[in-house]
Structures are given as C-alpha cells and as structure tokens.
Design brief:
CATH superfamily: P-loop containing nucleotide triphosphate hydrolases
Largest sheet: 6 strands, mixed
CATH topology: Rossmann fold
Structural class: alpha/beta
Number of domains: 1
CATH architecture: 3-Layer(aba) Sandwich
Strand content: 25-35%
CATH class: Alpha Beta
Number of strands: 10
Helix content: 25-40%
C-alpha cells in the first residue's frame, strides 16, 4: 500500500539544519499493523506526518496505492487526508465545548452532517464502550474515554490508513492495553492499515511489523 523511497526531511532553525530523516526507504503492506519505534529524535513522528501528508519531504517520495504524494496538488493532499487517513494523536485534540458525538463528527461539521452520519458516529462510540457517554464533554471524561472518542473520530470515515502518534502516551498501562485492543479489533473489521509511533514496545505482538529508527534512518524492520 505504501512505498517510501529515499525520503529525507530537513528543518532549518536559523542558520542550523536539523536532519529529521536521512534517506528512509521501506514498504508497508495493506491491512498490516505496524509499529515505528526508536528513541526521541529518531524521526518517527516526522515519518508519520509525511505519510499522512501533514508535511512534505525535502527529497524522495511516498507513494500510496501507487499515487505519489509529492506529485499531488494541495487540494489532492487535502482530499487524501480527509477521505483516506484517520489520525490519532497523544493529545486527543478534542474540542472542549462539544460533546462526544460532535467531537467524532468534527471533520464533517463544515459540510453539514446527515442523520445517517450522526447515527454512525453514535454507533462507533457504542462500539468503543461509550454508549452511556454520548453527550458528555471532554472535561467529564477520563483520559482513556477521551482517547476512545479520538479513535471513533478516526474510524468514522472508514479510512484506508490509520496513523497514531503515541496514542497511549497519556494513559496508564491497563487503559493503553484496552485502546490497542480496540484499535486491533476495529482495524481488522475495516481492513485498515495501521501505523503506530510509540516509545513503548509492550503492546507489540508476534504478528506485528516493527520499523525501528535511529538518527533519522531505518535501523531495522
């Protein structure tokens, strides 16, 4: 599904160049569950953001389903993020003035939300165990419950690709395990490809693929 071809990413801070990625090449299979691991500053999140078209590489290319992200227009990259990619971040990124259902629907609110879409959002929240929390705001929910809302939001569009950046970084180990159980179960149902950036390898299973990074390079798969 994803072909990463000699990708580099360089940030300029004043007169200093910071090389986040230094020629990364690898492929990610459709429907697979992948972990990107490595120490802080190894380029894990940079790679994730490039695959999600939240940023663009300095050189090299990333192809998704045979389509080059570098060759796409701004509008095409916007459509790719909107339609094909589900993002899950450590900070949850929920809106404090909206309840759980509307937080799941946030990506669709500008275009208007149909009754069918709202019903799907409510069902997803039930699927992740929040059926009794549909109209609670984030301040009324635990960290694990907020992360479940973020997972439901990512899955509402039935994405081809789920990108998660430290999704359990703010959670205790038991809640983190539950989040990964949900991710595996729901991604299996939708046949989505999952890419998780993490410092914690305790959630990795024997069937997962590990992409290990160090100093902006691929150290091992």
């Amino acid at each position: 599904m994803i072909e990463i071809q000699n990708v580099t990413k360089t940030h300029r801070l004043g007169e200093t160049e910071v090389h986040a990625l230094r020629g990364v090449t690898c492929s990610i299979e459709r429907g697979s569950f992948n972990f990107v691991v490595g120490p802080s500053g190894s380029g894990k999140s940079s790679l994730l953001y490039l695959i999600g078209a939240l940023d663009q590489p300095t050189s090299g290319d990333i192809r998704v389903d045979g389509h080059s992200l570098a060759a796409q227009s701004t509008a095409e990259r916007d459509a790719y993020r909107r339609d094909d990619v589900g993002f899950i971040f450590q900070s949850f990124n929920l809106l404090s003035n909206l309840d759980a259902v509307d937080n799941v629907l946030v990506p669709f609110l500008p275009q208007g939300v149909s009754a069918e879409l709202r019903n799907r959002a409510e069902q997803l929240l039930r699927d992740v165990g929040l059926g009794s929390r549909l109209h609670h705001q984030p301040r009324q929910l635990s960290g694990g419950e907020q992360q479940r809302i973020a997972i439901a939001r990512a899955l509402l569009k039935s994405p081809k690709l789920i990108l998660a950046d430290e999704p359990t970084g703010e959670l205790d180990s038991q809640t983190g395990a539950e989040v990964f159980r949900l991710l595996r179960e729901l991604s299996s149902q939708t046949e989505a490809t999952v890419l998780v950036v993490t410092h914690d390898s305790s959630f990795v299973t024997a069937s997962d693929r590990i992409i290990r990074m160090k100093d902006g390079r691929l150290a091992e798969t």
